[in-house]
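User: My instructor asked us to take a sequence, write out its structure as C-alpha cells, and then describe one feature of it. I'm not sure where to start. Here is the sequence I was given:
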Amino acid sequence: MSFILANSQRVLKATLTATVLGAWHTTLETDGASALSGAVSISWGLSTLKGTVVRAGSEDGGSRSSALVVGGAGGLSLTLPGKYYSSSPAAQSVVADILRESGESLSTTSDAAILARVLSRWTRTEGTAGSALTAVTDALGATWRVLFDGTVWIGVDTFPTSTAATATILDGADNPASGALVVDLESLSVLPGETYLGRKIREVTYTSTPEASRAELRTSTIGDFFTRALSGFQRKIDYAGTYPARVVKYDDGQIECIPDDEKVRGVGGLSHVPVRLGLPGLEIESLDPDDTRAVVSFEGNDPSRPAVLGWSQGGSLKIGSIVLVQATQPPFAVALSFFPAGLAGDAQAAAAFALGNTGSSHAQLIPLELSKLAVN
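Assistant: Let's start with the prediction itself. The C-alpha cells for your sequence are:
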C-alpha cells in the first residue's frame, strides 16, 4: 500500500479516479473519529493533491471516518447565472469569469493560444460552472480538467508517452473489449491524457488498501461519454429554444433586449442582437421600445449567434414601395413595379424616369408598411 496522508491524517483505504474531462475525485477512509472537512491536502506517495471535501462522516461507531474529496475548490458544481458577451471576447475572459465566480483557479500550463482565441459574441446560460466550461472548450475544440494541484487545465490532449515505469499487468486484467487494463502501480504516475503501454489513457482509477495497490487504466470512459453527451444535450435544449424579450433599444438593424428567462438574460441582457425580418430588403421604419417585445433565438444552436426571429408586439415595419405607372389615354394600361425598402432610392428614380419619359402616363410612388411589427 502507498503511504497516504490527508491533512496529516493517516489514510487506511483510498480510491482515486481522474479523467480527461472534469474534476478528479477520491474516497478516503481515515483512522479516527475526526472527519475531514473543507480544503484538503493529500500526500499520496510522491504526489500532492489539492481538493475539497464535499461529503464526510464517521463509521464503525466512530473509530473510522470517510470523506469524498473533489479536485480543486469544489466550485465547479455551483450554479452560475447567465451572462452575455457582446464585444467579441477572448476565450480567456469568458473562462476567467467562470473560474472567478466558482472560486477555482486556472492552471499556468493551460494552452495560451487556445485561450487567446476570440469568440464572436458569447451567451452563457444559467447552469453549473462545469457545464459552462464544457460549452466554451467544445466551441474551441479543446477540453478541460482539474489537475492534481487543484487548478483547472484547458487545452488539447496530445497523449504524450508517460514517463511511468512499466508495470506488471495483473492476471486476467487486460480486457481489449472494454478498454480496461489493470496494473500493479502504487504511485500516481500514469495520468489521463497520456499514452502508456501503447494505449491512449482517458481514465485512471487508483486503489490503495492495506493488502495491495493497483491502477485501472481505461482507453474509453463511460463517465466521459455521459458527461459530454448530457451536457451537449442540455446545451441544445438551452440554445434551441425561443426566448421572449423586452426590447430596450433599436439601432441600425440591431437591438438591445432583456429576455424574460433568467437562463439567457445575464446581468444586463443581450446587446447588438441582429434582427431577421424574413425577406431581403425589409427594414424597420420605427420602433418604440416601450411597446415592443421580441422573440430571440440562437441560430444553429450557437451561443455566439443570438438573433431576433419574431415579434410579439411593436412599431411599424417598412416593406417597400410600389411604382404605379398608368396611361392617361386609352387603353389606360397600368404597370406595377415593387421595390424593397432597402431600394428606396431605386424606387424614386424609377418614378421620376416614368414621369419624364412617358408624357401620356401618370406615375405614382406608393409606400408600403405595416402599422405594427408582425405578431408572432
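For the description part of your assignment, you could build on this observation: Residues 125 and 238 are 7 Å apart (CA to CA). Try explaining in your own words what that tells you about the chain.
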